């Protein structure tokens, strides 16, 4: 592999002595009032005169050719305005996820095809006067299928006689392009090892479970321009691909994303309904809204990749890892979506976290006739670090080394090659582990669990670690932009293209702008979510919004500050570099002269002294955030229930912009991770590909009552030269380390090593019974 | 949701009369084209899903009769109006002190928001949450009589092991009902034919050949009152619920116990099981095993064996038998150890 030695040119780090006035403070978020009062507008709230309701007919077979679709009865139903099938829509092959890239995604989707590849795929769409009429119309559409042989597991999809799901795989099979990483000499490494461990890890199929179902509303104006309100993380990508598929220039598609009820990565994809809604609106000449039911978010949404990881590592007696060999097989579902990207990021993550010079890693994603796996918080790394960190625990026990100590000995350090091939900056992981060990008094805690008397309920402590990039580079080159405009009363307006998934990112960006210019937080207004107004942005994903969008905002704000000081210099009779802005007042350093920002930018009659606008563009390379999670569990050996009693997550974020929002990300990630580990699994019938628990009643996410106390610790141990004030990402990190921490704690409690997730009560009971039998 | 008519009568008599006047008044209540609605937590949900398709809703939630909303404690027992909200009953001091099994069963049911809306009468009659019943794209004998049962060979982890038939294995998912069984409660009903009283344990019907016939009630018959007789020993009562998460989850297994102890021996005991059976389930064999003897881990274990002697598991729910036994043992011992 090549090494990207692109130096960080921005001298962006503070010397540690700077006093921050806005950054690092938990100011009131810009979105909370609208959210708690219900004033905030989501795409599902869009009401327009003459609005029609769109619904999608979904297949009730997993793999088939469509011989015929009879829509005549549906069209005849009173109130039905349009019905679209594959015969009526442009036939353009597209990437399911519209990034300006090909490496992360596979080009294998049509808006509607004459073939279905999973149970629940859209085959037709209806627009009607009411949702009820639209639903009735769906029942009247008759689809004649010619069934095709189907495969529902990776194992079946890899058999030579397996049906081909797409014809773009390698060598006429269902395998997407593999990811192969080899460094050093693995054979030599294993030969030098005192201990070799080899295990298979089995991964469940969790779903993101965002609160707001996928929804969009479309309206065409008299000039042939489309406005689409959509719940998407990637507004500009939606604009681009819609324009291309609809055959209109980019300036005739306007994408609006106001508030959003979560996405967790999955809403990077462009879904069938977004195309179909636009087409239905164009055909009927009326606005159309399409919203998924909760069931549809399972059927037509995106899942995390399930699969298997075979991991083999060699260790010396002192804990040094001599070789790492991994074979990762992921179930991509019926379409590629982010499979190539997830495979790349997950596989390359195994080059790092714990140092190892000799690695032989291979990751493959396989097509099956199951719902589509896509991008989801943690993006392949949840899976591979689950395997890695479970095996580390096992190695520690076999080597007689404390599990935390083994991690410390191997922790990635400054200058090491990160998975992205960039040198790691700082000792973030080590700092996280050490801080956590102190916080939970690890030695005493583990001694207490080791000494606990037998009983029905048994406690255990476990540790899990992770590192995650604050961007998608080098997989794709990203770009964030910001515009900061000075108003004549001294306030500023920030225009940013980053989506607000509910993370608090817009607040963080506003804080960065206020800090950089030297004005109060209240003097910044942020404008977001309208592609006609805000500057281009690649979208909110890859934990990069604060890192990339925030840096772009900082650059734009710095430019505004420069122009303001240029205006102020003659008024204060001092050179611009002698001036400082604090709380909106411009001071001459070392002299007792000052002037308000308002007086400078608008000296008379409300007329601006000059048009002051700053534009910031930032294309990040890579930085890594680190975390160590410590979890205490209690296992009820009679019921098999695992209760997480407490979690101490320690995260290195370089520089925290909004502590409460950052902690909220961490707590939310832990909640999602607890679900992945203990209760969440989207179950597919392996005889026909049908979804078996597509609802929040049957797919069990942990709720507030299930949440343990979480003592979040945020470190600023390894600031990144590329991020605003040294800040790095936090979005994905917290979901990665919690799974291994819980699973390792279960081992500490009952001495059973589970190598899969989720770990359900009945599996705990069965394993306990098997262990008892073995002992007897 | 499909369009429907809506009536809000002033009196109970009028409410029952509206349904009695309809052509399909003799249909089993779940299939009737007119349905009563009170809190609506079950009805509205199932109408949205298309499981319930009434064309008329008769709102009884605002009936004026104060008896329907009263919790009346007396030396003879406690009487609960059918329109008392779950949260009101769970917070009532007489219930908490005198009948802890009721308070515990309600506290662990559904979510706070649902308990604030749902009536006790509606809760008793809530329909199964079987995933195949709830999703109308599956075959279900309970929802569409004669269409088959997709759960038999489906993902039946949540399904019943007791009281099943070859037509239906859907679990009765309520919690409160188990407490009522254990307390020997009875219910009073009203219809145009007058009032009647029946033992609560007789209200629900086993699925048998007709899983869509769920209770002894007629379509125009309303539960008005739940009558719980006084038993000094009801203070020693307890509800244990095992579930996949700590709120908004139906029981994987639950146990209601009411225990009369004298000098360490079991003078009388009532045991009801939830999450395991097709109806609120009285475990009489387990009770018989315990009566007259000491209550310890050994005798509780024997009772647990007896309770599940007739259990019929399917592919994914066999664990419920061992889990149910463990739960029963634990519930018995915890009840024994209560300080009353």
Quick tags:
heterodimer; A: 776 residues; alpha+beta; Aldehyde Oxidoreductase, domain 4; 6-stranded mixed β-sheet; 19 helices; disordered N terminus; B: Uridine Diphospho-n-acetylenolpyruvylglucosamine Reductase, domain 2; Uridine Diphospho-n-acetylenolpyruvylglucosamine Reductase, domain 3; Enolase-like, domain 1; 5-stranded antiparallel β-sheet; 12 helices; globular
Question: Please, could you describe this protein's structure?
Answer:
The complex is a heterodimer of chains A (776) and B (340). Chain A is an alpha+beta fold and 776 residues long. Among the domains of chain A are: 1-11 and 428-467 and 624-776, 2-Layer Sandwich (Aldehyde Oxidoreductase, domain 4); 479-618, Aldehyde Oxidoreductase, domain 4 (2-Layer Sandwich), CATH 3.30.365. Chain A is built from 19 helices and 29 strands. A 7-stranded mixed beta sheet of chain A has the order 3-7-1-14-11-12-13, sandwiched between helices. The model of chain A is unreliable at 1-15 (pLDDT under 50). Chain B contains 12 helices and 12 strands. In chain B, a hairpin with a 2-residue loop joins strand 10 (251-262) and strand 11. Helix content of chain B is 27%, strand content 21%. In chain B, the strands form 3 sheets. A 5-stranded antiparallel beta sheet of chain B has the order 4-5-8-6-7. Chain B has a 4-stranded antiparallel beta sheet with strand order 9-10-11-12, sandwiched between helices. The N and C termini of chain B lie far apart (49 Å). Chain B has 340 residues and is an alpha+beta fold. Chain B has helices spanning 12-20, 43-48, 86-91, 93-98, 100-107, 112-117, 120-124, 131-134, 176-182, 284-290, 297-307, 319-336; strands spanning 5-7, 34-37, 56-59, 71-74, 77-81, 186-191, 194-199, 222-229, 237-243, 251-262, 265-274, 281-282. In chain B, helix 11 crosses helix 12. Chain B has 3 domains: 5-60, Uridine Diphospho-n-acetylenolpyruvylglucosamine Reductase, domain 2 (2-Layer Sandwich), CATH 3.30.43.10; 69-124 and 175-229, Uridine Diphospho-n-acetylenolpyruvylglucosamine Reductase, domain 3 (2-Layer Sandwich), CATH 3.30.465; 233-336, CO dehydrogenase flavoprotein, C-terminal domain (Enolase-like, domain 1), CATH 3.30.390.50. Chain A binds chain B through residues 60, 132, 295, 638-641, 679, 683, 685, 692-695, 697-698, 700-706, 761-762, 765-766, and chain B through 1-3, 129, 131, 134-135, 137, 154-155, 157-158, 242, 244-249, 252, 319, 322-323, 326-327, 329-330.
């Amino acid at each position: 592999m090549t090494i990207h030695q692109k130096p960080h040119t921005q001298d962006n780090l503070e010397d540690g002595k700077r006093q921050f006035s806005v950054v690092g403070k938990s100011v009131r978020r810009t979105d909370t009032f609208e959210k708690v009062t219900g004033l905030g507008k989501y795409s599902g709230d869009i009401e327009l005169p003459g609005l029609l309701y769109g619904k999608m007919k979904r297949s009730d077979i997993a793999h088939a050719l469509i011989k015929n679709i009879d829509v005549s009865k549906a069209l005849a139903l009173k109130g039905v305005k349009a019905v679209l099938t594959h015969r009526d829509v442009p036939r353009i092959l597209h990437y399911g996820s519209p990034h300006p890239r090909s490496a992360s995604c596979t080009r294998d989707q049509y808006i509607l095809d004459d073939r279905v590849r999973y149970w629940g795929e859209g085959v037709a769409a209806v627009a009607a006067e009411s949702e009820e009429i639209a639903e009735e119309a769906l029942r009247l559409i008759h689809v004649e299928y010619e069934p095709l042989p189907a495969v529902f597991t990776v194992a079946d999809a890899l058999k030579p006689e397996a049906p081909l799901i797409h014809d773009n795989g390698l060598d006429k099979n269902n395998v997407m392009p593999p990811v192969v990483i080899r460094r050093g000499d693995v054979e030599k490494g294993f030969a030098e090892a005192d201990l070799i461990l080899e295990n298979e890890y089995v991964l469940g199929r969790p779903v993101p479970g965002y609160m707001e179902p996928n929804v969009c509303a479309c309206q065409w104006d008299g000039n042939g321009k489309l406005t689409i309100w959509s719940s998407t993380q990637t507004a500009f990508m939606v604009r681009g691909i819609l324009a291309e598929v609809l055959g209109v220039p980019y300036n005739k598609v306007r994408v609006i994303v106001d508030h959003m009820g979560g996405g967790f990565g999955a809403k990077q994809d462009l879904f069938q309904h977004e195309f179909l809604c636009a087409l239905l609106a164009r055909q009927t000449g009326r606005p159309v809204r399409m919203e998924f039911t909760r069931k549809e978010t399972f059927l037509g949404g995106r899942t995390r990749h399930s699969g298997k990881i075979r991991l083999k590592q060699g260790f010396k007696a002192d804990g040094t890892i001599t070789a790492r060999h991994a074979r990762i097989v992921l179930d991509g579902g019926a379409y590629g979506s982010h499979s190539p990207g997830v495979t790349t990021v997950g596989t390359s993550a195994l080059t790092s976290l714990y140092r190892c010079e000799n690695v032989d890693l291979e990751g493959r994603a396989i097509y099956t006739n199951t719902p589509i796996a896509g991008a989801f918080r943690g993006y392949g790394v949840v899976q591979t670090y689950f395997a890695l960190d479970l095996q580390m625990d096992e190695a520690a026990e076999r080597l007689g080394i404390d599990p935390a100590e083994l991690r410390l000995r191997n922790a990635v350090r400054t200058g090491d090659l990160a998975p992205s091939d960039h040198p790691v900056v700082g000792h973030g992981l080590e700092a996280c582990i050490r801080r956590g060990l102190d916080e939970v008094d690890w030695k005493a805690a583990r001694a207490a669990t080791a000494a606990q008397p037998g009983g029905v309920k048994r406690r255990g402590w476990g540790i899990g670690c992770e590192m995650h990039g604050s961007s998608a580079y080098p997989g794709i080159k990203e770009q964030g932009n910001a515009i900061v405009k000075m108003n004549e009363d001294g306030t500023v307006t920030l225009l940013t293209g980053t989506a607000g998934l509910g993370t608090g990112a817009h607040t963080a960006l506003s804080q960065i702008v206020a800090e950089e210019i030297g004005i109060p937080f209240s003097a910044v207004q942020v404008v977001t979510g309208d592609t006609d107004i805000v500057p281009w942005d690649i979208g909110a994903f890859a934990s990069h919004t604060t890192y990339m969008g925030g840096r772009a905002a900082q650059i734009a704000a710095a430019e505004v500050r420069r122009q303001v000081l240029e205006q102020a210099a003659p008024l204060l009779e001092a050179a611009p570099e002698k001036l400082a802005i604090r709380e909106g007042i411009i001071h001459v350093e070392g002299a007792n002269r000052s002037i308000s920002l308002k007086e400078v930018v608008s000296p008379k009659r409300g007329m601006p002294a000059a048009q002051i606008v700053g534009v910031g563009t930032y294309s990040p390379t890579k930085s890594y955030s680190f975390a160590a999670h410590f979890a205490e569990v209690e296992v009820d050996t009679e019921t098999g229930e695992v209760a997480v009693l407490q979690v101490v997550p320690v995260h290195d974020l370089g520089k925290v912009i909004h502590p409460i929002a950052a902690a909220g990300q961490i707590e939310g990630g832990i909640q999602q991770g607890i679900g992945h580990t203990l209760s969440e699994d989207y179950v597919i019938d392996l005889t026909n590909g049908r979804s078996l628990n597509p609802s929040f009643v049957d797919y069990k996410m942990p709720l507030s009552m299930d949440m343990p106390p979480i003592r979040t610790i945020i470190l600023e141990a390894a600031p990144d030269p590329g991020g605003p004030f040294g800040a790095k990402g936090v979005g994905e990190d917290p979901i990665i380390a919690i799974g291994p921490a819980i699973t390792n704690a279960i081992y500490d409690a009952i001495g059973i090593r589970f190598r899969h997730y989720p770990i359900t009560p009945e599996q705990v009971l069965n394993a306990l019974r098997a262990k008892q039998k073995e002992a007897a | 949701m499909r369009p429907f008519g809506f009536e809000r009568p002033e009196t109970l008599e009028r409410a029952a009369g509206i349904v009695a006047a309809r052509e399909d008044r003799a249909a089993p209540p779940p299939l009737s084209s007119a349905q009563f609605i009170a809190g609506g937590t079950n009805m509205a949900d199932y109408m949205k899903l298309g499981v319930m398709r009434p064309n008329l809703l008769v709102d009884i939630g605002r009936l004026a009769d104060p008896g329907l909303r009263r919790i009346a404690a007396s030396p003879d027992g406690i009487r609960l109006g059918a329109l008392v909200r779950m949260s009101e009953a769970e917070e009532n001091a007489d219930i908490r002190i005198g009948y802890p099994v009721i308070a515990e069963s309600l506290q662990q049911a559904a979510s706070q928001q649902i308990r604030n809306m749902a009536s006790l009468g509606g809760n008793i009659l809530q329909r199964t949450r079987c995933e195949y019943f709830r999703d109308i794209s599956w075959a279900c004998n309970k929802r569409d009589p004669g269409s088959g049962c997709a759960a038999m060979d489906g993902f039946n982890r949540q399904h019943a092991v007791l009281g099943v038939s070859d037509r239906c294995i859907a679990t009765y998912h309520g919690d409160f009902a188990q407490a009522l069984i254990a307390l020997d409660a009875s219910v009073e009903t009203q219809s145009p034919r007058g009032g009647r009283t029946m033992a609560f344990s007789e209200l629900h019907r086993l699925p048998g050949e007709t899983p869509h016939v769920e209770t002894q009630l007629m379509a125009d018959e309303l539960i008005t009152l739940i009558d719980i007789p006084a038993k000094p020993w009801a203070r020693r009562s307890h509800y244990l619920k095992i579930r996949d998460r700590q709120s908004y989850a139906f029981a994987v297994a639950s146990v209601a116990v009411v225990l009369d102890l004298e000098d360490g021996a079991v003078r009388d005991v009532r045991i009801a099981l939830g999450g395991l059976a097709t109806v609120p389930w009285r475990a009489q064999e387990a009770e018989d095993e315990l009566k007259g003897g000491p209550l310890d881990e050994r005798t509780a274990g024997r009772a647990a064996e007896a309770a599940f002697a007739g259990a019929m598991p399917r592919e994914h729910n066999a664990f419920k038998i061992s889990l149910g036994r463990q739960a029963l043992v634990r519930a018995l011992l915890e009840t024994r150890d209560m300080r009353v």
